[in-house]
Amino acid sequence: MKTVQSILRQPIFFSQKLWLRSYSTKYQEAPSSWKAMLNLKHIYEHSGEIHQNCVNRNMRAVAETLPTIKSLYEEHTAVRNQLTPYVSEKNKITGLIKSSKDGEHRSFLVSEAKNIKVKIDSIEKLSSDIQKKLYHYCLSLPNSTLPSVPLGSEDNAVCVASIGEQKNLNEKNFYIKDHLELAGDAIDLLSASETSGHAFCYIKGEVAELEMSLINYAIDFAKSRGWSLVIPPSIVRSDVALACGFQPRDEQGEQIYQLENQYESNSPKQCLVGTAEISLASLGFRQTFHDLKEKRVVGVSRSYRREAGARGRDTKGLYRLHEFTKVELFSWTHPSQSSRVFDDIIKLQIDFIHSLGLSARVLNMPTQELGAPAAQKYDIEAWMPSRAKFGEISSTSNCLDYQARRLLTRYKNSKDSGFVHTLNGTAAAIPRLVIALLESHQQPDGSVVLPQCLIPYLKKEKLFVPNEKEVSE
Q: For the chain, what is the radius of gyration of the CA atoms?
Protein backbone atom coordinates (compact mmCIF):
# COMPACT_ATOMS: atom_id res chain seq x y z
CA MET A 1 0.00 0.00 0.00
CA LYS A 2 1.31 3.42 -0.88
CA THR A 3 2.00 5.80 1.98
CA VAL A 4 -0.01 8.95 2.35
CA GLN A 5 3.21 10.90 2.01
CA SER A 6 4.49 9.10 -1.09
CA ILE A 7 1.70 10.43 -3.25
CA LEU A 8 1.39 14.00 -1.97
CA ARG A 9 1.73 16.15 -5.02
CA GLN A 10 -0.56 19.19 -4.90
CA PRO A 11 1.20 22.38 -3.77
CA ILE A 12 -0.69 24.59 -1.35
CA PHE A 13 0.97 27.84 -0.37
CA PHE A 14 0.48 29.61 2.93
CA SER A 15 2.23 32.95 2.54
CA GLN A 16 1.96 33.91 6.21
CA LYS A 17 0.81 31.01 8.36
CA LEU A 18 1.25 27.28 8.46
CA TRP A 19 -1.44 25.38 10.31
CA LEU A 20 0.20 22.89 12.62
CA ARG A 21 -1.14 20.46 15.14
CA SER A 22 -0.93 19.04 18.59
CA TYR A 23 -2.28 15.63 19.56
CA SER A 24 -5.29 17.38 21.06
CA THR A 25 -6.08 18.60 17.49
CA LYS A 26 -6.81 22.08 18.78
CA TYR A 27 -5.87 24.89 16.43
CA GLN A 28 -2.32 26.07 16.72
CA GLU A 29 -1.02 28.59 14.23
CA ALA A 30 2.69 29.16 13.68
CA PRO A 31 3.74 32.16 11.57
CA SER A 32 5.80 30.78 8.73
CA SER A 33 6.52 31.00 5.01
CA TRP A 34 5.76 27.29 4.61
CA LYS A 35 4.63 25.64 1.40
CA ALA A 36 2.79 22.45 2.23
CA MET A 37 2.08 19.73 -0.31
CA LEU A 38 -0.84 17.45 0.46
CA ASN A 39 -2.92 15.19 -1.76
CA LEU A 40 -6.33 15.92 -0.32
CA LYS A 41 -8.06 13.64 -2.79
CA HIS A 42 -6.01 10.63 -1.68
CA ILE A 43 -6.68 11.35 1.99
CA TYR A 44 -10.40 11.67 1.23
CA GLU A 45 -10.53 8.46 -0.81
CA HIS A 46 -8.45 6.45 1.71
CA SER A 47 -9.89 7.93 4.88
CA GLY A 48 -10.87 4.48 6.20
CA GLU A 49 -7.30 3.15 5.99
CA ILE A 50 -5.93 6.34 7.49
CA HIS A 51 -8.48 6.21 10.32
CA GLN A 52 -7.43 2.64 11.16
CA ASN A 53 -3.75 3.63 11.09
CA CYS A 54 -4.47 6.36 13.65
CA VAL A 55 -6.39 3.90 15.84
CA ASN A 56 -3.54 1.38 15.60
CA ARG A 57 -1.17 4.10 16.82
CA ASN A 58 -3.47 4.99 19.72
CA MET A 59 -4.04 8.45 18.24
CA ARG A 60 -7.78 8.37 18.71
CA ALA A 61 -8.21 12.13 18.90
CA VAL A 62 -6.65 12.40 15.45
CA ALA A 63 -8.66 9.42 14.15
CA GLU A 64 -11.84 11.21 15.16
CA THR A 65 -11.00 14.07 12.79
CA LEU A 66 -11.37 11.90 9.67
CA PRO A 67 -15.14 12.53 9.33
CA THR A 68 -14.42 16.25 9.65
CA ILE A 69 -11.72 15.96 6.99
CA LYS A 70 -14.15 14.22 4.63
CA SER A 71 -16.85 16.81 5.30
CA LEU A 72 -14.46 19.72 4.77
CA TYR A 73 -13.13 18.16 1.57
CA GLU A 74 -16.64 17.80 0.17
CA GLU A 75 -17.51 21.34 1.23
CA HIS A 76 -14.30 22.67 -0.29
CA THR A 77 -14.94 20.81 -3.55
CA ALA A 78 -18.49 22.17 -3.73
CA VAL A 79 -17.31 25.73 -3.12
CA ARG A 80 -14.58 25.43 -5.75
CA ASN A 81 -17.15 24.11 -8.22
CA GLN A 82 -19.19 27.27 -7.65
CA LEU A 83 -16.29 29.26 -9.03
CA THR A 84 -16.28 27.56 -12.43
CA PRO A 85 -19.23 29.36 -14.06
CA TYR A 86 -18.22 32.73 -12.61
CA VAL A 87 -14.62 32.39 -13.81
CA SER A 88 -15.86 31.29 -17.23
CA GLU A 89 -18.24 34.25 -17.42
CA LYS A 90 -15.53 36.69 -16.26
CA ASN A 91 -13.11 35.40 -18.93
CA LYS A 92 -15.82 35.76 -21.56
CA ILE A 93 -16.58 39.35 -20.52
CA THR A 94 -12.87 40.19 -20.40
CA GLY A 95 -12.59 39.06 -24.04
CA LEU A 96 -15.60 41.16 -25.02
CA ILE A 97 -14.16 44.20 -23.28
CA LYS A 98 -10.96 43.89 -25.28
CA SER A 99 -12.85 43.65 -28.59
CA SER A 100 -15.60 46.18 -27.85
CA LYS A 101 -15.45 49.50 -29.70
CA ASP A 102 -18.65 50.91 -28.23
CA GLY A 103 -17.74 53.02 -25.20
CA GLU A 104 -21.13 52.71 -23.50
CA HIS A 105 -21.24 48.94 -24.03
CA ARG A 106 -17.66 48.68 -22.85
CA SER A 107 -18.53 50.52 -19.60
CA PHE A 108 -21.45 48.11 -19.04
CA LEU A 109 -19.15 45.15 -19.52
CA VAL A 110 -16.58 46.59 -17.11
CA SER A 111 -19.31 47.04 -14.49
CA GLU A 112 -20.44 43.43 -15.00
CA ALA A 113 -16.85 42.21 -14.67
CA LYS A 114 -16.51 44.06 -11.33
CA ASN A 115 -19.73 42.53 -10.03
CA ILE A 116 -18.55 39.04 -10.99
CA LYS A 117 -15.15 39.69 -9.36
CA VAL A 118 -16.89 40.56 -6.07
CA LYS A 119 -18.68 37.20 -6.20
CA ILE A 120 -15.45 35.37 -7.09
CA ASP A 121 -13.56 37.07 -4.24
CA SER A 122 -16.31 36.09 -1.80
CA ILE A 123 -16.22 32.45 -2.92
CA GLU A 124 -12.40 32.34 -2.86
CA LYS A 125 -12.40 33.77 0.66
CA LEU A 126 -14.79 31.03 1.77
CA SER A 127 -12.68 28.45 -0.08
CA SER A 128 -9.52 29.71 1.64
CA ASP A 129 -11.11 29.53 5.09
CA ILE A 130 -12.27 25.95 4.50
CA GLN A 131 -8.89 25.02 3.08
CA LYS A 132 -7.05 26.26 6.17
CA LYS A 133 -9.20 24.09 8.42
CA LEU A 134 -8.83 21.13 6.08
CA TYR A 135 -5.04 21.41 5.99
CA HIS A 136 -4.86 21.86 9.73
CA TYR A 137 -6.50 18.47 10.24
CA CYS A 138 -4.59 16.76 7.42
CA LEU A 139 -1.25 17.90 8.82
CA SER A 140 -2.26 16.18 12.06
CA LEU A 141 -2.21 12.77 10.41
CA PRO A 142 0.68 10.45 11.31
CA ASN A 143 2.94 8.68 8.89
CA SER A 144 1.77 5.43 7.35
CA THR A 145 3.04 2.27 9.05
CA LEU A 146 5.27 -0.33 7.40
CA PRO A 147 3.77 -3.85 7.24
CA SER A 148 6.51 -5.36 9.43
CA VAL A 149 5.48 -3.26 12.46
CA PRO A 150 3.59 -5.27 15.14
CA LEU A 151 0.15 -4.05 16.17
CA GLY A 152 -0.67 -2.93 19.67
CA SER A 153 1.10 -1.74 22.79
CA GLU A 154 4.67 -2.08 24.07
CA ASP A 155 3.84 -5.58 25.32
CA ASN A 156 3.69 -6.74 21.70
CA ALA A 157 7.25 -5.67 20.86
CA VAL A 158 9.16 -8.38 19.01
CA CYS A 159 12.76 -9.19 19.96
CA VAL A 160 14.70 -9.46 16.70
CA ALA A 161 18.26 -9.74 18.08
CA SER A 162 20.29 -10.12 21.28
CA ILE A 163 23.61 -8.48 22.14
CA GLY A 164 26.16 -10.01 24.49
CA GLU A 165 25.49 -12.33 27.41
CA GLN A 166 23.34 -11.30 30.32
CA LYS A 167 25.52 -11.13 33.43
CA ASN A 168 24.14 -12.68 36.59
CA LEU A 169 25.98 -10.73 39.26
CA ASN A 170 24.17 -12.68 41.98
CA GLU A 171 26.29 -15.71 41.10
CA LYS A 172 29.37 -13.78 42.24
CA ASN A 173 27.93 -13.55 45.76
CA PHE A 174 28.37 -9.84 46.39
CA TYR A 175 25.98 -7.01 47.08
CA ILE A 176 24.80 -5.42 43.82
CA LYS A 177 24.89 -1.63 43.99
CA ASP A 178 22.93 0.68 41.76
CA HIS A 179 24.66 3.48 39.85
CA LEU A 180 23.96 6.03 42.58
CA GLU A 181 25.61 3.89 45.26
CA LEU A 182 28.59 3.20 43.02
CA ALA A 183 29.12 6.85 42.03
CA GLY A 184 28.48 8.43 45.42
CA ASP A 185 28.61 12.24 45.30
CA ALA A 186 29.83 12.13 41.68
CA ILE A 187 26.11 12.02 40.76
CA ASP A 188 24.63 14.93 42.70
CA LEU A 189 20.86 15.06 42.31
CA LEU A 190 20.27 16.89 45.60
CA SER A 191 22.25 20.03 44.74
CA ALA A 192 20.66 20.17 41.30
CA SER A 193 17.17 19.78 42.77
CA GLU A 194 17.80 22.85 44.95
CA THR A 195 19.08 24.97 42.07
CA SER A 196 17.14 23.62 39.07
CA GLY A 197 14.40 21.30 40.33
CA HIS A 198 13.49 17.63 40.19
CA ALA A 199 15.20 15.45 37.51
CA PHE A 200 18.27 17.63 37.05
CA CYS A 201 21.77 16.55 38.00
CA TYR A 202 25.34 17.65 38.63
CA ILE A 203 27.76 15.11 37.14
CA LYS A 204 31.18 15.30 38.75
CA GLY A 205 34.56 13.62 39.00
CA GLU A 206 35.06 10.23 37.37
CA VAL A 207 31.44 10.02 36.19
CA ALA A 208 31.88 13.33 34.35
CA GLU A 209 35.05 11.90 32.80
CA LEU A 210 33.10 8.79 31.80
CA GLU A 211 30.38 10.91 30.19
CA MET A 212 32.86 12.91 28.11
CA SER A 213 34.66 9.70 27.11
CA LEU A 214 31.40 8.09 25.98
CA ILE A 215 30.56 11.17 23.90
CA ASN A 216 33.95 11.18 22.19
CA TYR A 217 33.96 7.42 21.70
CA ALA A 218 30.47 7.45 20.17
CA ILE A 219 31.47 10.24 17.79
CA ASP A 220 34.68 8.46 16.77
CA PHE A 221 32.78 5.19 16.32
CA ALA A 222 30.24 6.86 14.00
CA LYS A 223 32.93 8.74 12.07
CA SER A 224 34.77 5.46 11.47
CA ARG A 225 31.57 4.23 9.73
CA GLY A 226 31.40 7.29 7.47
CA TRP A 227 29.22 9.68 9.48
CA SER A 228 30.19 13.38 9.44
CA LEU A 229 30.26 15.33 12.71
CA VAL A 230 27.85 18.24 13.24
CA ILE A 231 27.33 20.28 16.40
CA PRO A 232 23.77 21.59 15.99
CA PRO A 233 21.93 24.28 17.94
CA SER A 234 19.82 23.23 20.91
CA ILE A 235 17.20 25.91 20.20
CA VAL A 236 14.95 25.82 17.14
CA ARG A 237 11.78 27.56 16.03
CA SER A 238 8.66 25.85 17.35
CA ASP A 239 7.16 25.50 13.86
CA VAL A 240 10.27 23.60 12.76
CA ALA A 241 9.95 21.22 15.72
CA LEU A 242 6.30 20.70 14.83
CA ALA A 243 7.19 19.99 11.21
CA CYS A 244 9.61 17.31 12.43
CA GLY A 245 6.69 15.66 14.23
CA PHE A 246 7.51 16.81 17.78
CA GLN A 247 4.59 18.30 19.64
CA PRO A 248 4.69 21.02 22.29
CA ARG A 249 1.74 19.18 23.87
CA ASP A 250 0.51 15.62 23.79
CA GLU A 251 -2.40 14.00 25.54
CA GLN A 252 -0.34 13.64 28.72
CA GLY A 253 0.75 17.28 28.92
CA GLU A 254 3.69 19.50 28.13
CA GLN A 255 6.67 17.80 26.48
CA ILE A 256 8.85 20.52 24.96
CA TYR A 257 10.31 23.53 26.74
CA GLN A 258 9.05 26.56 24.84
CA LEU A 259 10.80 29.91 25.19
CA GLU A 260 8.79 33.08 25.65
CA ASN A 261 9.63 35.96 23.33
CA GLN A 262 10.97 38.95 25.22
CA TYR A 263 9.27 41.33 22.80
CA GLU A 264 6.07 41.00 20.80
CA SER A 265 6.89 39.42 17.48
CA ASN A 266 5.11 37.81 14.55
CA SER A 267 7.88 35.23 14.27
CA PRO A 268 7.35 31.74 15.77
CA LYS A 269 8.39 31.08 19.34
CA GLN A 270 11.53 29.10 19.96
CA CYS A 271 11.92 25.87 21.92
CA LEU A 272 14.64 23.66 23.37
CA VAL A 273 15.16 20.46 21.39
CA GLY A 274 14.26 17.16 23.04
CA THR A 275 16.74 15.45 20.73
CA ALA A 276 19.33 16.58 18.19
CA GLU A 277 17.14 14.85 15.59
CA ILE A 278 15.10 18.06 15.35
CA SER A 279 17.98 20.43 14.66
CA LEU A 280 19.77 17.89 12.43
CA ALA A 281 16.61 17.35 10.36
CA SER A 282 16.34 21.12 10.07
CA LEU A 283 19.76 21.18 8.43
CA GLY A 284 17.88 20.00 5.33
CA PHE A 285 15.24 22.74 5.55
CA ARG A 286 14.41 23.99 2.02
CA GLN A 287 17.43 22.09 0.67
CA THR A 288 17.71 20.04 -2.52
CA PHE A 289 20.32 17.28 -2.55
CA HIS A 290 21.77 16.51 -5.96
CA ASP A 291 22.79 12.98 -6.99
CA LEU A 292 21.78 11.76 -3.55
CA LYS A 293 22.43 8.20 -2.40
CA GLU A 294 22.62 9.08 1.25
CA LYS A 295 24.00 11.82 3.46
CA ARG A 296 24.85 10.89 7.04
CA VAL A 297 25.67 13.10 10.02
CA VAL A 298 26.32 12.46 13.71
CA GLY A 299 25.48 15.30 16.07
CA VAL A 300 25.99 15.88 19.77
CA SER A 301 23.87 18.24 21.84
CA ARG A 302 22.16 18.76 25.13
CA SER A 303 18.58 17.50 25.07
CA TYR A 304 15.64 18.79 27.05
CA ARG A 305 12.52 16.85 28.06
CA ARG A 306 9.97 18.74 30.11
CA GLU A 307 8.10 15.63 31.25
CA ALA A 308 10.61 13.39 33.03
CA GLY A 309 8.08 10.96 34.46
CA ALA A 310 6.73 10.29 37.92
CA ARG A 311 9.16 9.63 40.74
CA GLY A 312 9.86 5.99 41.52
CA ARG A 313 12.19 3.09 40.85
CA ASP A 314 11.79 3.31 37.07
CA THR A 315 12.89 6.94 37.10
CA LYS A 316 15.51 6.71 39.85
CA GLY A 317 18.82 8.50 39.38
CA LEU A 318 19.90 9.15 35.81
CA TYR A 319 17.20 7.12 34.07
CA ARG A 320 14.89 10.09 33.33
CA LEU A 321 16.26 13.60 33.37
CA HIS A 322 14.98 16.92 32.09
CA GLU A 323 18.43 17.73 30.64
CA PHE A 324 21.05 15.36 29.31
CA THR A 325 23.60 14.80 26.55
CA LYS A 326 22.79 12.69 23.53
CA VAL A 327 24.77 11.70 20.44
CA GLU A 328 22.40 11.35 17.50
CA LEU A 329 22.63 9.83 14.02
CA PHE A 330 20.66 11.38 11.15
CA SER A 331 20.51 10.49 7.48
CA TRP A 332 18.87 11.80 4.33
CA THR A 333 18.55 9.12 1.67
CA HIS A 334 17.14 8.40 -1.74
CA PRO A 335 13.79 6.60 -1.19
CA SER A 336 15.23 3.42 -2.66
CA GLN A 337 17.97 3.36 0.00
CA SER A 338 16.10 4.03 3.25
CA SER A 339 15.55 0.36 4.16
CA ARG A 340 19.25 -0.37 3.74
CA VAL A 341 20.27 2.70 5.75
CA PHE A 342 17.87 1.64 8.53
CA ASP A 343 19.70 -1.69 8.71
CA ASP A 344 23.07 0.11 8.68
CA ILE A 345 22.09 2.24 11.68
CA ILE A 346 20.92 -0.82 13.63
CA LYS A 347 24.21 -2.61 12.80
CA LEU A 348 26.22 0.39 14.02
CA GLN A 349 24.26 0.53 17.28
CA ILE A 350 24.64 -3.21 17.90
CA ASP A 351 28.40 -3.10 17.29
CA PHE A 352 28.76 -0.02 19.51
CA ILE A 353 26.85 -1.57 22.42
CA HIS A 354 28.72 -4.87 22.02
CA SER A 355 32.03 -3.02 22.20
CA LEU A 356 30.97 -1.65 25.61
CA GLY A 357 30.46 -5.18 26.92
CA LEU A 358 26.77 -4.69 27.61
CA SER A 359 23.94 -7.18 27.39
CA ALA A 360 21.04 -5.85 25.32
CA ARG A 361 18.15 -6.74 23.04
CA VAL A 362 16.78 -5.22 19.84
CA LEU A 363 13.01 -4.76 19.68
CA ASN A 364 10.72 -4.14 16.73
CA MET A 365 8.35 -1.67 18.39
CA PRO A 366 4.55 -1.90 17.94
CA THR A 367 2.26 0.71 16.42
CA GLN A 368 1.34 2.40 19.70
CA GLU A 369 5.03 3.08 20.40
CA LEU A 370 5.59 4.94 17.13
CA GLY A 371 5.72 8.71 17.12
CA ALA A 372 3.81 10.54 14.38
CA PRO A 373 6.80 10.75 11.96
CA ALA A 374 8.00 7.13 12.25
CA ALA A 375 6.85 4.45 9.83
CA GLN A 376 9.01 1.91 11.70
CA LYS A 377 11.03 1.99 14.93
CA TYR A 378 13.49 -0.37 16.60
CA ASP A 379 14.50 0.15 20.24
CA ILE A 380 17.60 -1.27 21.90
CA GLU A 381 17.35 -2.02 25.60
CA ALA A 382 20.33 -2.79 27.84
CA TRP A 383 20.24 -4.95 30.96
CA MET A 384 20.39 -2.81 34.09
CA PRO A 385 21.14 -4.97 37.16
CA SER A 386 19.70 -2.66 39.82
CA ARG A 387 16.40 -2.55 37.95
CA ALA A 388 16.56 -6.30 37.27
CA LYS A 389 15.25 -5.63 33.79
CA PHE A 390 16.09 -4.06 30.45
CA GLY A 391 15.97 -0.29 29.93
CA GLU A 392 15.88 1.59 26.64
CA ILE A 393 19.21 3.13 25.62
CA SER A 394 18.68 3.81 21.90
CA SER A 395 16.18 3.74 19.07
CA THR A 396 16.14 3.97 15.28
CA SER A 397 13.29 5.28 13.14
CA ASN A 398 12.59 5.31 9.41
CA CYS A 399 10.40 8.35 8.75
CA LEU A 400 10.14 7.85 4.97
CA ASP A 401 9.33 11.27 3.45
CA TYR A 402 7.12 12.47 6.33
CA GLN A 403 9.60 15.02 7.70
CA ALA A 404 11.07 15.86 4.30
CA ARG A 405 7.72 17.00 2.92
CA ARG A 406 7.20 19.26 5.90
CA LEU A 407 10.76 20.64 5.79
CA LEU A 408 10.85 20.85 1.96
CA THR A 409 13.92 18.61 1.70
CA ARG A 410 14.20 17.28 -1.84
CA TYR A 411 16.59 15.36 -4.05
CA LYS A 412 17.22 15.72 -7.77
CA ASN A 413 19.39 13.66 -10.08
CA SER A 414 19.55 12.72 -13.74
CA LYS A 415 17.03 9.89 -13.34
CA ASP A 416 14.42 11.18 -10.92
CA SER A 417 13.55 13.73 -8.27
CA GLY A 418 11.30 14.01 -5.24
CA PHE A 419 11.37 14.18 -1.46
CA VAL A 420 14.13 12.41 0.43
CA HIS A 421 13.59 9.83 3.14
CA THR A 422 14.91 10.68 6.61
CA LEU A 423 16.14 8.30 9.29
CA ASN A 424 17.39 8.89 12.82
CA GLY A 425 19.02 6.78 15.47
CA THR A 426 20.60 7.17 18.89
CA ALA A 427 24.35 6.73 18.91
CA ALA A 428 24.59 7.28 22.67
CA ALA A 429 22.01 8.41 25.24
CA ILE A 430 24.67 9.20 27.80
CA PRO A 431 22.89 8.94 31.20
CA ARG A 432 21.38 5.53 30.51
CA LEU A 433 24.64 4.22 29.10
CA VAL A 434 26.31 5.36 32.31
CA ILE A 435 23.75 3.37 34.33
CA ALA A 436 24.28 0.21 32.27
CA LEU A 437 28.07 0.50 32.28
CA LEU A 438 28.52 1.20 35.99
CA GLU A 439 26.11 -1.47 37.13
CA SER A 440 27.11 -4.18 34.65
CA HIS A 441 30.87 -3.80 35.20
CA GLN A 442 30.90 -3.31 38.97
CA GLN A 443 33.25 -5.36 41.17
CA PRO A 444 32.90 -6.68 44.77
CA ASP A 445 35.11 -3.84 46.08
CA GLY A 446 32.84 -1.17 44.57
CA SER A 447 35.13 -0.37 41.65
CA VAL A 448 34.01 -0.52 38.01
CA VAL A 449 36.11 -2.18 35.32
CA LEU A 450 36.07 -0.19 32.08
CA PRO A 451 35.60 -1.89 28.69
CA GLN A 452 38.77 -1.92 26.61
CA CYS A 453 37.39 0.60 24.10
CA LEU A 454 37.11 3.33 26.76
CA ILE A 455 40.52 2.90 28.39
CA PRO A 456 42.33 5.13 25.84
CA TYR A 457 39.78 7.88 26.48
CA LEU A 458 39.85 7.81 30.30
CA LYS A 459 43.49 6.69 30.51
CA LYS A 460 42.61 4.28 33.31
CA GLU A 461 41.25 0.76 33.59
CA LYS A 462 38.92 1.19 36.55
CA LEU A 463 36.68 3.77 38.20
CA PHE A 464 36.07 4.25 41.93
CA VAL A 465 39.16 2.29 42.98
CA PRO A 466 39.24 2.20 46.83
CA ASN A 467 42.32 3.74 48.39
CA GLU A 468 44.44 1.78 50.86
CA LYS A 469 42.77 3.33 53.91
CA GLU A 470 39.32 2.32 52.69
CA VAL A 471 40.54 -1.22 51.97
CA SER A 472 42.05 -1.63 55.46
CA GLU A 473 38.86 -0.40 57.08
A: 27
